[in-house]
What does this fold into?
Amino acid sequence: MIQNLLRVEKFVDSPTEKMKVKRETQDKADGDLILKAHKPHISVRNLNVYLTKNHILKNVNLDIPDKAITCIIGPSGCGKTTLLKTFNRLLQNSLDVRIEGDVLVDGENIHGKGVEVENIRKKMGLLSQRPCPLPMSIFDNIAYGPRIHGIRRKKTLNIMVEKYLKEAGLWDEVKDRLKSPATSLSIGQQQRLCMARGLAVKPEIILGDEATSALDPISSKKIEELFVKLKDQYSIVLVTHTLRQARRIADYVIFMYLGEVIEAGPAAEFFSNPKEKLTKEYLDGYFS
Ligand SMILES: Nc1ncnc2c1ncn2[C@@H]1O[C@H](COP(=O)(O)OP(=O)(O)OP(=O)(O)O)[C@@H](O)[C@H]1O
It folds into this structure.
């Protein structure tokens, strides 16, 4: 026993191990700070989802921090998209869909009686895998949401269109062709346009479902940079297949497997010191 202790002591004494222990302690401290600094924006409690009688999400419990980037990772078919869809009620109870448990946004159960789905959706912008601009001009794509909310003055709309195109990092590329059809833009530009269109209705939360997977590397990098720039103002939740992307931009990570949340935590700690064997195996590439 004493020999073992001495061995551990000696091991921790080595400079590399000391650095590792120091780094892990620092990661843990950073993680605690993230959790303290960012109160939960979305909380999921005992969530079970059945699609055509298949049990897809199994007793999911988690908190998504406010004003941070949360990445949901896990192998194909583990339920990432289904989970994301429950956040803005894209999944509704119906003959084929049964939802049990609570999804709380700002403390309100969004599946509760009397909750207007429009009010929930207004809080969230959704970026899907393939950009889907509306079949109208670049200008009208951005002005669409504000017009629906009653904004008609041309001057106000001009200001808004410029503001949100700038926020999405697209203004300089399109300012001279605002009347052109949105479909004339490249796919990467269309994705930034969709981001600007979403921002124009002033959401609190941005959801992304594989939002960069259809893009070339440069466009993908621009969208990633945009997420990082926007995270001070919005809570961002991203489903991603790309572990490298999660390592680059996540503040908080949720790892799912076969419909269950296996592990969730602050990114630095999650990647450097995963607790669960399955998480370690996934991070080491034993399965993908
Ligand atoms: N309408 C449906 N009826 C029955 N099963 C469904 C239905 N829609 C999805 N599923 C199943 O639910 C599971 C979770 O699907 P989901 O799309 O959420 O996974 P995912 O982790 O996002 O996968 P991927 O990474 O491949 O997009 C899968 O096994 C899928 O086949």
